[in-house]
Amino acid sequence: MTFTYWYAVISHATGAGALPNSWGPGLYDLPLRCVVQGELAGVVSDWLGKPVSRSSDSVDPVLVVRHEQVVEQIMDDVAVLPMRFGTILHGDEGVQAMLAERQATLKADLAHVAGCVELGVRVLWEPPAPVTPAPEPAPLPTPVTTPGAQYMLRRAAEEQTRRAGQAHGQALAAELDRTLRSHAIDARLTVLQTERLLLSAAYLVRHEQTPAFETAVEGLRAAYAQLAFLCSGPWPPYHFVSA
Asked: Which CATH number fits domain 116-240: 3.30.365.10, 3.30.70.260, 1.10.150.20, 2.60.120.580?
């Protein structure tokens, strides 16, 4: 059985002729080619290795880098829907079947990302420290005096503090997103993914708006000195391909 390695989806019109030399070879220096189905084409190459796990420690980083290089070289020339590293199907027929099954969705995605790149933003913060309440006068005897009841009251207070911190973080992330989204046409956000990761976001930005977006990030960095900002890209629009 033969296997086909899939890099990206482009329009049929782009993939109907010879591929540009600037896209180079694929993994293992094998030539790129297009598998056409309807109005779409998959940029692929033969696959000579074994199926790979994206999370495996044994994945050759050279292959990962080459995959990304191919996708970025395609993106420099045409609108592209990137496939994740390690997308391997049973021959070209598998690619055609997938393109046929998802033709309408992928065509809509391709139109959505045309002329755009993905920019990533991560924001770290120090969560607010729990507020220690001032000592209160000893209460009058009440039925709530057992150790178990006192434990539940402490847990309730801790949960209230945690929720207040989350609400503060969500409001802060929304403030940042409002500024950045004004320079983007779409976004994918994750808020408070970990205790310190306030915001992890991917923004779909038109090529000509990239400098304005990066300037907006710098403005936020100056305005929110207590936060740490990381802006990366431009990348192929991985987060804007329908799952």
From this structure: 3.30.70.260
